[in-house]
Write a structure and sequence with these properties.
Elements (H helix, E strand, L loop, with lengths): L8 H25 L38 H16 L10 E3 L1 H15 L2 H14 L8 H9 L5 E4 L4 E5 L6 H20 L12 H26 L2 H8 L11 H20 L9 H8 L6 H5 L1 H5 L12 H5 L4 E6 L2 H11 L6 H5 L2 E11 L3 E10 L2 H12 L6 E8 L2 E7 L2 H11 L3
Helix pairs in contact: 1-5, 1-6, 1-8, 1-9, 2-6, 2-7, 6-7, 7-9, 9-14
């Protein structure tokens, strides 16, 4: 299972509107429940102090929006200035925002998706996700990702061309403004830390990529909410919270969970580093420059990041080598704690899937395909303790999978999962690789 690919920043931008609705609604509900309540831990204080030394408006009011709403470019430039004050990073050299129409966006989306997500990688992802059981029938990962975007994108930062883009058809309402604050933070990150240096789409490193993406999106999300609580009125915040949740149609729930993970868990991670708590982003800056999170385990459990608890290297056997010349390996990657939990839940595991994924030490998943649409999957997992291994094994054994499958206990703290398109293939793989 590859971490949700971001063939362009358009895909991640498409999640911001949904994220804003979900978290602002939670925040307002929580604050409304008690006059003395504080925002949830993953949200910044409603009256943050900017790391650059300035103090944004502590109490949102009708006068917070200084510029006329019709002055689109001036309003966007004001948001940029406000975001820079919150995040404490210098202005990037990207010029004024580019205004495009919804039709132009759709053209860009198709072109960038085709360029950044080639057919060969789509086929490999489809094979892996079908072998895991997360995609069924004729479901196609690229089609589902494009469907997730829908009409949600209001603006984005184009990392390749280094430009801010705003979709005019949506109008410059609070949803568009909060999205712009988020995406402009990416422009600041790119100028200060060079996002390409994080290698967010490294082959075979899905867990690490998702962890680093969580740093990027968590930082932008925390800044976004600091900006919103400082510069939007209570009625505007309420309006965002009441925005209808976009219809995601037949997109599987696990895809939504994976898409939102970098924003939700990333916000918590950045907050734990100090970002959002009085606006001190020094530790966040150090994470970008020196030590981005090495695993989603470090994101979910920030104390493990602080302790620099790194993943163990695990080698999984290649099922193709056990099956013969007609078979070929199509993917090899590390899943990690977050994707393990999302996978178990997506496949219908009983019990606490978060607990079943906790205690992860390292893993490697390999998928091969062969004649007559055959497939075979080997997935070797190392755990911190025998108890952690048993918890995962119990969750896996509760699954009702549509393919032949087996769990082999290699050691007290290590298991091997084998899944295949038939019992014959399963037996051949299990016999050939169990001791590998």
């Amino acid at each position: 299972m590859r971490a949700m690919r971001s063939p362009s920043r358009l895909l991640t931008a498409g999640a911001v509107a949904l994220l804003a609705v979900l978290i602002v609604a939670v925040a307002l509900s929580h604050l409304a429940s008690s006059p003395t309540a504080v925002a949830p831990s993953f949200l910044p204080s409603p009256s943050p102090v900017a790391s650059g030394g300035a103090s944004p408006t502590a109490t949102p009011s009708a006068s917070a929006s200084v510029l006329p709403s019709g002055d689109t470019e001036a309003t966007l430039l004001a948001i940029e200035q406000q975001v820079r004050e919150i995040r404490g990073l210098p202005a990037p050299d990207i010029g004024p925002p580019q205004i495009i129409s919804r039709d132009q966006l759709q053209d860009e989306l198709r072109d960038k998706f085709a360029h950044d997500y080639p057919k060969a990688r789509q086929r490999a992802d489809n094979a892996t996700l079908h072998a895991l059981g997360l995609l069924t029938g004729d479901q196609d990962i690229a089609t589902l990702q494009l469907r997730l975007l829908g009409q949600q994108v209001l603006g984005y930062y184009d990392e390749t061309k280094r430009r801010m883009v705003v979709v005019t058809d949506a109008g410059l309402d609070p949803n568009a403004e909060i999205t712009y604050a988020h995406e402009y933070t990416h422009a600041l990150q790119d100028a200060a830390f060079k996002l390409s240096s994080l290698d967010l789409n490294a082959a075979g490193e899905d867990d690490r990529s998702l962890a680093r993406q969580s740093l990027v999106e968590g930082d932008a999300s925390v800044v976004m909410y600091q900006w919103a609580f400082a510069h939007l009125t209570p009625s505007e915040l309420q309006g965002i919270a009441q925005t209808p949740i976009p219809d995601t149609g037949d997109v599987p729930p696990w895809m939504l969970q994976q898409l939102l993970f970098p924003y939700l868990a990333g916000s918590q991670f950045v907050t734990a580093l100090g970002g959002g708590l009085g606006g001190d982003f020094a530790a966040v800056d150090r994470a970008f420059r020196n030590r981005p999170p090495a695993s989603t385990e470090q994101v979910v459990h920030p104390e493990k990041y602080t302790a620099n608890e790194r993943p163990m290297r695990v080698r999984a056997p290649d099922p193709a080598s056990a099956l013969g010349a007609d078979w070929r390996q199509v993917s090899s990657t590390t899943m990690g704690e977050a994707l393990i939990q999302i996978t178990l839940e997506g496949l219908g595991a009983s019990g606490d899937t978060a607990a079943a994924a906790a205690g992860w030490g390292g893993d490697r998943l390999v998928v091969a395909t062969g004649p007559d649409d055959g497939f075979a999957l080997t997935w070797r997992l190392k755990w911190d303790s025998a108890a952690d291994a048993r918890e995962f094994a119990d969750a896996y054994r509760s699954l009702d999978l549509p393919m032949s499958h087996r769990l082999v206990e290699l050691a007290d703290d290590e298991v091997l999962v084998v899944q295949a398109s038939s019992e014959d293939v399963l037996d051949r793989v299990a016999e050939g690789v169990a001791g590998g």
